[in-house]
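Journal club prep, shared notes

We agreed each person brings one worked example of a sequence with its structure written out as tokens. Mine is DNA repair protein RadA. I'm keeping it raw so we can talk through how to read the token line rather than staring at a rendered picture. Sequence first:
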Amino acid sequence: MARSTTTHRCSECGWTTTRWVGRCGQCQAWGSLAEASSAAPTRSTSSTRPSQPAQPITQVNAQHARGIKTGIGELDRVLGDGLVPGAVVLLGGEPGVGKSTLLLEAAARWASQGRRTLYVTAEESAAQVRSRADRTTALHDELYLAAESDLGVILGHIEDLSPTLLVLDSVQTVQAAGTDGVAGGVSQVREVTNALVRTAKRRGMAVLIIGHVTKDGALAGPRTLEHLVDVVLAFEGERHGAFRMVRASKNRYGPADEVGCFEMTESGIREVPDPSGLFTSGRGPTPGTCVTVSLEGRRPLVAEVQALVVPTSLTQPRRVTHGLDMSRVTMTLAVLQRRAKHKLHTRDVYASTVGGVRLSDPSADLALAIAVASAMRDDEPRGRMVAIGEVGLSGEVRRVPALGRRLAEAARLGFERAIVPAGSGKDAVAAGLAVVEVLTLEDALAAAFGPPRTNVVPIDGRELA
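Then the structure, token by token:
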């Protein structure tokens, strides 16, 4: 006999409890718990004979995990080596960033290689997608289009067409009959994703899924959604800017920290195979700026950090960042104040990157510190230089990985000097670059600005220390 139990389930995140409470214990939403009665079976699961026997790992064919090129080099770079048959890829991003445009282009490139492709849109009409395809020249006879939001009908299309690639836009707008909740709810998203994963593995069909994000930038829906799929990609960029970046946060078939660069144009999305130089102002050394070389996956990326320091009349000075990690900016400012004697507690500090790029690499700490000091002194760094290094709380400059590749990229773009952590050794050897090794932040500032100039006046007319 099965005993009946009464539980209360949160409609936002799926959290359950045996008694009703006003606030969800997981997502903290108010009034989201509803009563749900379920029968808890008491019998145990019996063993069954497997359909296929287990085999030695040496006899498993590794060719089944080989990727197939999509035709978009930057997307293939992030995926590892193209799309693996049977892989399920989840692409998330803010509204209007270009997710549908990118995957429509990928579907058209895939179809142009003679592979049947099915594009399912659950948000737009077929005419709207066709209009976008006309604008971006993403048309091919092997690219099939269906405007459906019912999971059963979508699976029927897959059985009829037998595509090698399925693009679904989006998982939050598809509904599975017989599953509780509305489209986009926890149960619905979980069931739709489970069905697509089972179908992809059974048929050897690659699946690209578009997912919505919350206002905090996290993927909407249950956390298990990211565990079910094989690859999780984030499409980043400003809606009013031209540049976009695809970043992998999970990848079972390749590196999980790779980045691809794209540019949005009137005729669609264009890949940028050499993004270095796009994230610098190109004006040369000016007060409040410093260039660094970040490592995004295996790709060195030259980016410029800008800072503005102004006196404040507020008790709590402002700290505003764009494209930089706020916690690392705050820590770097504290080190500048304590170790380099820059009085920042009476000044507002604004720090930003150029071109909308987001720098999470700790190697950008040193460039940020030099940019803030440059704005504080109203003095530009000497010559065309890059600064690479992580700043510690005691003021030391720590080594960073792959320094040789970073310096080679800076030399290729015509930079003359580089300030790097001490002890870099042979990694600091780069053709055409004068490399300066520093132990502390004070040494780095001395190398960046040289002897103090007598005609430099601080922004408030007082001494720095």
